[in-house]
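P.,

For your records, the input lines for the assembly:
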Amino acid sequence: DTGVSQDPRHKITKRGQNVTFRCDPISEHNRLYWYRQTLGQGPEFLTYFQNEAQLEKSRLLSDRFSAERPKGSFSTLEIQRTEQGDSAMYLCASSLTDRGSAWNSPLHFGNGTRLTVT
Amino acid sequence: AQKITQTQPGMFVQEKEAVTLDCTYDTSDQSYGLFWYKQPSSGEMIFLIYQGSYDEQNATEGRYSLNFQKARKSANLVISASQLGDSAMYFCAMREALSSNTGKLIFGQGTTLQVKP
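Structure tokens returned:
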């Protein structure tokens, strides 16, 4: 178990540029989540995948945001035409959840990607 | 509406003493799960402890215990024998029955804990 891996750890970009983040979940985990966290706040849910299917998107996720999980393994989160308000920590989490463990399975988080939009 | 409330933005505790971090929640579901996470300055969210709404006993994991008072809708985290490495931000989170299909957690605002030597 190597844990959830996110790349890059830090990203500085200019307003209007596109950025892409990658998340590699724990290998056997079927669920993958993206959260956004601003300074001093708790993580906010963005979107969720069950295997390769994106099953829920938060209203926080504007049209400039897109996430994929091809082949049900790693996931990417792309932000187009970045704005200063996009500056935040983007956290990826995964879990292995079946019907019997739906309640007590914790999410395992990566170290996050800190985005700064100048 | 805020579903998870952590009213203590910051807390101090002396090393080796116990500390309680407060968490109250709001849900109309009968089935839900409550989680506590620790986030050190490095940024990683570390899972600490879980309590199910139907669990009759308070959960314990090493130095962590969860004081679950269902009628009051509170799920306070108790850390015994604080260590310097416990200094971090702590988040309370909830998974409701309605979100069981996604398994997503809803987080509170967090409490920053500083352990004094």
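Two observations worth noting. The mean pLDDT of chain A is 92. The radius of gyration of chain A is 14 Å.

Regards
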